[in-house]
Specification:
The chain is mostly helical. The protein has helices at about 1-10, 15-25, 40-50, 55-60, 110-120, 130-135, 140-150, and strands at about 85-90, 100-105. Strands 1-2 form a two-stranded antiparallel sheet. The longest helix has 13 residues, at about 110-120. The protein is flat, with a radius of gyration of 44 Å.
């Protein structure tokens, strides 16, 4: 706290005379401008406003002919193409109105994934990757990757084998 007061006293010492000394210093002289003729801007203005008869006659000879393209009138029943994707109804769902009713083609809901994985684990010869891809409108590569790498959770409870257990306190 004391150090701040000391530095403030020294910084304010002789402030006014230092400010006058800085103001009295000679200002730097700007670099000289490039010399321009006095009629430089007037000459260009005259040239812009002057009419060239030769160019004017050439311009008169130009004839532009244009036709508008024929506009296609759409019927009121016809609508613009939309970016909506095709959707398919879901295969399973037990929640009624809370279920997802449709999913886009090429995609699948979580309930359907778990169902098809269960079916594939129970009978892999009937639920092959090709059949699953056709049934759920998926690509074969995605289905094979799904069957290879996606493993659903399995809860297993192991019986205690150790007789020596810690007693709760």
């Amino acid at each position: 706290m004391m150090g701040a007061r000391v530095t403030r006293v020294f910084s304010k010492f002789n402030l006014e005379s230092r400010a006058h000394r800085e103001i009295a210093k000679a200002k730097p002289v700007p670099a000289p401008r490039h010399p321009q003729p006095a009629d430089h801007t007037d000459r260009f203005q005259e040239e812009i406003k002057r009419k060239d008869d030769h160019l004017h006659t050439l311009l008169k000879d130009v004839y532009v002919e244009s036709k508008d393209p024929v506009m296609h009138v759409k019927n009121k029943g016809e609508s613009l193409p939309s970016k909506r994707e095709e959707r398919r109804p879901t295969k399973v769902g037990n929640l009624g109105p809370l279920d997802i009713q449709s999913v886009p083609r090429g995609k699948i809901s979580v309930v359907e994934v778990l169902t098809l994985l269960h079916n594939h684990l129970q009978s892999p010869e009937t639920w092959t990757a090709e059949k699953i891809a056709k049934e759920y409108s998926l690509e074969l590569k995605d289905v094979t990757d799904l069957l290879t790498f996606f493993i659903p959770f399995a809860v297993e409870i192991f019986p205690p084998q150790d007789k020596k257990q810690l007693k709760p306190r």
